[in-house]
Design goal:
mainly alpha, Arc Repressor Mutant, subunit A, Four Helix Bundle (Hemerythrin (Met), subunit A), 2 domains, two-stranded antiparallel sheet, 10 helices, 68% helix, 3% strand
């Protein structure tokens, strides 16, 4: 069963779309929370949760007494080792990062199924084949798994979303190779990736994005259960 998109996710998606459309400028101060809650037609509680998630991703910065600012795209907050460490401090933080991936990669996959070119399909397929070839080498398998997700983001033809996928990959996945040590995970990943690719190739955005969300739900369960081992 596909999880219904929440109000928080809707706000985040709307915010990303407005950045892409040039509604906000990098480095500038954002409107007040009161203005933003009216802009997105949500409560202040929902808005604050969405802003907190965006802040966790490094997209925005809260400055006490001054307001909220949109970070420059080259801001290293995404890839700082401090952020990488933060998401492994407890299961709740890790779950939020996985939720962020679900939100972002749902959109990249949806758009990829609409906008992919023949060249994009070849790149996605090549990464999938490399995963199959290296299924007995966790390090190499992990690398091609990352490239598979990035190639889908690239096929979305949305540079902002592509950067999000790359930066989350660099901070999150660099520490998560142990995920593939769990019995059956590699086979399950290959099966799910094939389904995602097939739907992108067929041009079915709803089905492709639904498969991606389902695919990204499983790591939350596995990683949360084995988090104490990952932290060692």
């Amino acid at each position: 069963m596909v999880k219904r998109i929440s109000l928080v996710e809707e706000v985040i998606n709307a915010f990303l779309n407005e950045i892409q459309a040039g509604e906000f400028s990098y480095g500038e101060k954002l409107p007040s929370q009161e203005e933003l809650s009216k802009r997105y037609n949500v409560s202040r509680i929902v808005l604050r949760e969405a802003l907190t998630k965006l802040s966790g991703l490094g997209m925005i910065t809260f400055v006490q007494g001054k307001g909220t600012y949109l970070n420059e795209p080259g801001n290293n907050l995404f890839v700082e080792s401090e952020f990488s460490t933060l998401i492994f401090q407890d299961a709740n933080n890790l779950k939020e990062v996985i939720e962020a991936r679900q939100i972002i990669e749902r959109e990249t996959t949806f758009l990829a199924a609409q906008r992919r070119t023949g060249e994009d399909l070849l790149e996605i397929k090549e990464n999938l084949m490399k995963m199959q070839e290296n299924k007995n080498d966790i390090k190499e398998f992990s690398k091609w798994d990352l490239d598979f997700h990035v190639s889908i983001a690239k096929a979305s033809q949305n540079s902002v979303l592509q950067k999000f996928v790359i930066l989350l990959r660099d901070s999150y996945w660099s520490n998560i190779s142990k995920f593939f040590e769990v019995e059956g995970v590699i086979e399950k990943t290959l099966l799910e990736h094939n389904k995602i690719y097939e739907q992108i190739e067929l041009g079915n955005p709803e089905s492709a994005s639904n498969h991606m969300v389902g695919h990204l739900t499983y790591p939350e369960k596995v990683i949360s259960n084995s988090l104490k081992y990952v932290k060692k």
